[in-house]
Please model this.
Amino acid sequence: NAGVTQTPKFQVLKTGQSMTLQCAQDMNHEYMSWYRQDPGMGLRLIHYSVGAGITDQGEVPNGYNVSRSTTEDFPLRLLSAAPSQTSVYFCASSSHPILASSSYEQYFGPGTRLTVT
Amino acid sequence: AQTVTQSQPEMSVQEAETVTLSCTYDTSESDYYLFWYKQPPSRQMILVIRQEAYKQQNATENRFSVNFQKAAKSFSLKISDSQLGDAAMYFCAYRKIQGAQKLVFGQGTRLTINP
Model:
């Protein structure tokens, strides 16, 4: 049971390049989400998904796209990277609160440090 | 919208002593969850303790306990017998009971343990 995995761990992009941050979980969790962490600002929600085929925007969605074709995977796409997207990105997953009796803990991946020059 | 505020960017404590980290939040909901997460230099987010707002009893996990004041919307974390391994960033977080499990985080407090 690997939990939540993220690839890559580190990435450097040039302005305007595109890339996809990968996130996968093997716990059959319905809920998955992406956060970014910037100094002095804590973690902020980018996008989230409550199940395969269902996604929605969080607090800071601009410049990012997501899709959820399977329960296991939730990739985050940067279509045209900008220096303002330099950050550490975390993926998290959790059981659906209605179906799970007490599983309201969110499990976080190890993070991806992205630098855009 | 819900907000979470941690007013102490940095704290330090002597090893074996007790330290309290502060957190306040704003919400119009009556039921919700509150959490403290620890982030060591490895960057991994680790759940330290959680509190359900409908429970009056303060949560406790070994050396970690909270002081939950619902009316004041305050949720502080007390670490007793501080150890070197407690050095980390600590984040306070809020989540609604139902619906999408969106966490709202505070800005974080960097805790240093002095040997």
In short: The mean pLDDT of chain A is 92. The two ends of chain A are 36 Å apart (CA to CA).
